[in-house]
Design a protein that fits this description.
- By secondary structure, the chain is of the alpha/beta class.
- 41% of the residues lie in helices and 22% in strands.
- It folds into 2 domains: 119 residues, Response regulator (Rossmann fold, 3-Layer(aba) Sandwich), CATH 3.40.50; 96 residues, Arc Repressor Mutant, subunit A.
- Helix 6 crosses helix 8.
């Protein structure tokens, strides 16, 4: 964590803002607040925070709509923190660019851990064409994957799916997002395609495909690459 990291909290509940302020400032973060969507957009543009904690139940604009507006230009972590816990809301938020989704009531320690992880992964993003994860390397330019320095033979679709997940390390990518990006809109509901290809990839890159450490299933939502 960088002592200069600033967290923007967009939430209209003063009790939640006070709790988050105590938790975050006691762990070295700076905090700024917005009580509605309009103020949140202005604060994000003005202060360029390291991350945003976003409530969905705002008085002037639905938080999911605000998320879409923010993602038009804001490329740092956005963590949704809300009482809304429907699968549709979770999937929509993740599909539209949220890095994480927590429901209220929440545990401060878990929220802090997720904030740290989101900021760290965002900070560690590099422009290198080769991604490395332990014994696995992914050459994005030459489309070559190596495990323990040996080339792993992948189909074009397998490589596209693996590289998309790896480039979004730590972020949950929904079934719909992956299907749209890899196969196109006509396959939007064909989740069996994902199950088949994820199983094939696990056999090729995981040390133990039955206990995957790289291609993680987020039940009912999608998949995540690593931690």
């Amino acid at each position: 964590m960088n002592e200069n990291d600033t967290i923007l909290i967009i939430d209209d509940e003063i009790q939640i803002r006070r709790l988050l302020e105590i938790s975050l400032t006691s762990n070295g973060y700076k905090t700024i607040f917005a009580s509605d969507g309009k103020e949140g957009l202005t604060s994000a543009a003005t202060h360029n925070p390291s991350a945003i904690i976003l409530d969905l139940g705002l008085p002037d604009i639905d938080g999911l709509e605000l998320l879409v507006k923010l993602r038009e230009w804001f490329n740092k972590p956005i963590i949704v923190l809300t009482v809304r816990n429907s699968e549709d809301d979770i999937i929509y938020a993740l599909d539209k660019g949220a890095n994480d989704y927590l429901t209220k009531p929440f545990r401060s320690g878990e929220l802090l851990a997720r904030v740290r992880t989101a900021i760290r992964l965002n900070t560690e993003k590099i422009d290198s064409p080769i991604l490395e994860f332990g014994s696995l390397s992914i050459d994005l330019i030459n489309h070559v994957v190596r495990k323990n320095n040996e080339i792993v033979k992948l189909t074009a679709t397998e490589f596209s799916l693996l590289s998309l997940l790896a480039k979004n390390q730590g972020r949950v990518l929904t079934h719909q997002f992956l299907l749209r990006e890899i196969w196109g809109y006509s396959y939007y509901e064909q989740t069996q395609y994902l199950r088949v290809f994820i199983a094939q990839l696990r056999k090729k890159i995981e040390e133990n495909p039955s206990k995957p450490e790289l291609l993680i299933t987020e039940s009912g939502i999608g998949y995540r690459f690593g931690n």
